[in-house]
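Continuing the series of single-chain predictions for the mutant panel. This is the parent chain; the variants come on the following pages.
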Amino acid sequence: MAAAMPWNARVLTLYPAMFPGPLGQSLAGRALVEGRWSLTAVDIRDFARDKHRTVDDTPCGGGPGMVMRPDVLATAIDETLAGAGSAAAEQPLIYFSPRGRRLDQALVHEVKAAGGATLICGRFEGVDERLLQARPVVEVSLGDFVLSGGEIAAYALIDAVVRLLPGVMGAEESGTEESFADGLLEYPQYTRPQMWEGRAVPEVLLSGHHERIAAWRREMAEKITAERRPDLWERYRRRKPAAKD
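Parent structure:
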């Protein structure tokens, strides 16, 4: 049987030296060395049309900052996809933007299942709107804040995907018993020593009774989610009766 193709991230950026960066360390770094995923960092400036390698221009209508040119960026996208094989054209083309769909675990699973993704890291005031209309771009937001560029968002998405790939996590259940796996925040975790600064590990966790432990963890996950993320709790609460049928 032929080996499965590794999940591939193609990152279009003005700063290719930022990659792999932190993705070259820890779980993601080891998985990269093992060939469980691959990374291609593409320098957008390589597709500029002048000797100064210009990728941006002033915004039409005036205003501060600069805007990334659609012609340069479109060429970077098209040539990158053309060189990546036919499967790449069917995989997500993601541009990181505060206007986009919020990055959550459901989206991470979608990107993982696609087998790879092409990630556009914007800079300056963003990219020309016509580029977003002319290519099948999905805008994705890391949260309600502004970064200097999309590279840090790309780190976050890639890391979230890579840890779900087969063989990356140390234990198979690690990817399922954690925050957002079933719509809840994760339950509290404890380890040795049993007593620390007058605080004890909950007795149920030392009981060896797996059903009681599972019930306690579910109860704590529900309690924490309700207190800290009412938006998640409301969605979970609406789904919960159907899940019991």
